[in-house]
From TrEMBL:
Membrane topology according to the record: Multi-pass membrane protein
UniProt record similarity statement: Belongs to the binding-protein-dependent transport system permease family.
GO biological process: transmembrane transport
Chain coiled-coil ranges: none
Protein name (database record): Multiple sugar transport system permease protein
UniProt keyword annotation of Transmembrane present: yes
Major location (coarse): membrane
Amino acid sequence: MSQTTSRSRRSGIRRGEAASGWLFTAPVIILLGVFLVVPVLMALWVSFSDWGGRGSPFSSDVNFIGLKNYTSILAGGGLAEQDFGISLKNNAWYVVLVVPIQTAVALGLAVLVNRAVLRGRGFFRTAFYFPSVTSSVAITVLWLFLFSTTGAVNQMLSWIGINGPNWFNDPDGIVHNFLGIFGVTQGPGALTQNTLLGVSWWDWLGGPSVAMTAYIIMAVFTTSGTFMLLFIAALQNLGGDITEAAMMDGANGWQRFWRITLPQLRPTLFTVLTLGLIGCWQVFDQIYTGTKGAPGKTTLTPAYQSYKTSFVDQNWGQGAAIAFILFVIIVLFTIFQRWVLRERAVSKRRMRLYQPAITASTAVPAAATAAAAEKEPKR
């Protein structure tokens, strides 16, 4: 009887705790539902409709048109497909260059600032992190001045005899410019005649424009500080036992970093790469404040194209479709990145490489023990 009573009391307490938990989380759930889930579902419906932005998207005047908005963007053969292809190409180069560079810079700064021998570490942490807390609009306006034709960047380049480009007005790809040094101004027919999303393969491989390159430099400058703090926190949580053991085994600084420190930073590395990937695919405010896709649509991005299609061209269905295509791209890249950074079992080839070292490390103590036993006088 007493056991039954105690069980009923415990179950009652658990039900009370569950009710209290739901009560405390209810405001957040309601806010997320009203301001996140409902708008996303509405946007999803708009992407399958011909809503023109006037009235309710659920009115009887709005028609369901299926995948027409998506097919117009991905395989329509018109201006919508070409603009989306151009924006995707621009953003792809932006991601390919910004994500690895900002990750490497952030990790390098973290390792540098985390060194105990460095004086004024607090100052350097603040200095490196300061651009990350500055408004992106303010940074973009500053960048427009710095990278103007007569700006500070071109002035410094002139000191070493380099005639700086007209950064935010130059639509040429940097790869095409590099090939132009060797007299290559036109690609082979296989690249110029075949297209993907209305853009020739020659243009896909042309690299980011000079204007987009300025945005790439700005992104690395403004985001490396934030990721530096994540790496610093991870470095300070690493134990020093393994590193000290590696030092005793004769491992140099690079070997300790590559073989010991970096593998332990895998979770933080995945977080940094994921956040960088999402942020780079969603780049919008810099483009909106700066060039608005110019020159020649070489700074156009899918996020800005979605905004322009919806709010400027009043084609809300295609604008919403672009947003959801971008969402799918981000999810696929994140899954691929997680697969690349997954934990792997040590291969047999590596085991064979490590086996001599393991054997030697175990043989030395055994030999020392045997030698000591031989020297010990018999009783």
